[in-house]
Amino acid sequence: MDFSPNYNLVQELKWRGLFHQAVPGTEDLLLEEMTSGYVGFDPTADSLHIGNLVPIILLVHLQKAGHKPIALVGGATGMVGDPSGKKSERQLLDIDSINYNLNSQKKQLEQFLDFDCGENSAEVVNNFDWFTSISFLDFIRDVGKHISVNYMMAKDSVKNRLEDGMSFTEFSYQLVQGFDFYHLWSEKNVKLQMGGSDQWGNIVTGTELIRRKGNGKGFSLTAPLITKSDGSKFGKSEGGNVWLDAKKTSTYQFYQFWMNTSDEDAERYIKIFTLHTKGYIEDLIKEHKNAPHLRALQKDLAAYITKWVHGDTGYETALTATDILFGKATSDSLRNLSENDFFSIFNGVKKYQVSYVHGVNIVDLCADSGFLPSKSEAKRALKENSVSVNGEKVTEDFIFSEADLINSKYVLLQRGKKNKFILIKS
After folding, report:
1. Which pTM value belongs to this model?
2. Above pLDDT 90, what percent of the chain?
3. CA 20 to 30 Å from 421, out of 179, 238, 340, 352?
4. Rounded Cα gap, residues 66 and 35, in angstroms
């Protein structure tokens, strides 16, 4: 999209609930000229998670307004450790682990941003590339002298940790991040840094460096930290982080996270996590309020984000998995699931390991595995036509074969809709 002075990015972010604060003049800058802006990402894991979606979407909106988005992956800052919002030191990673994580995250960023659209194509940079050429003595002489200790001590990210102690490594983080902004400003004409509101202190350290060391002007914009309506932290499930990598969080689990959103949260999240127009969202909210039991907001939200992150195929897999969970399993639908999706659907279902299944009668296997309490109970259930193997009803004379193993590994047994059991070939 070409830059347009009629597209007011700040106002767009405000109505969506994505604006917290900005350095004075930021809105005017974004209306006057195509601007390069960046967001930093922490490389402590080999996948981004839904907590990273807000900074990603800030870059998406920046590009949509015709500006140039830059994703900074912190190969150098990842070796230092950001104290913002942390209560303790984190385990530092070696360079090989960081590089692996960076490459994995870059692939995920390419799902959201356009890297081939001309002047405002997205770009990924790694701050390790410029910090490798700077010695410690050069850094404290040429950069450290411009920011006082008093200035650094006044930041909340430091004050909140003084009582329990903070290493010099993490204390220096804001100076390192501040230099990132200065470097991108001086080398790439990047005038804007964005991030979450908890990053404000680190971000304005960069604007101070630009002012004091470069006699220039840097701008910043932050989004509020997203919370649930009950005040709890957004982005966590009972199992921990909700990852963008399907190997870490299955497409089914990802889809269900959004489907399980409360009505109040869904009304906010549909503005924050989709690119739907204001009119579309207002109509959808009205539709939902008229018939909340149909969960129109949750369905649209879950479909939109699942497709954005996992594509149409991932969305269809999530729908299939949901149908299976609610008793619509078939042999074909089960075989189309990845192992990760299969076990995430049946998380908590009892499992039993068998050395072989070929040639074993259904009655014997039901009783021997503990799925049903006895052979007589198994026969009774089979006569009632209530037992299924991989979603297909079977009779008393059913004999297992290797072909009944899904992915050559497991079998789903059911009695009725609720009593489920998994056989795993050892």
Report:
1. 0.83
2. 58
3. 238
4. 8
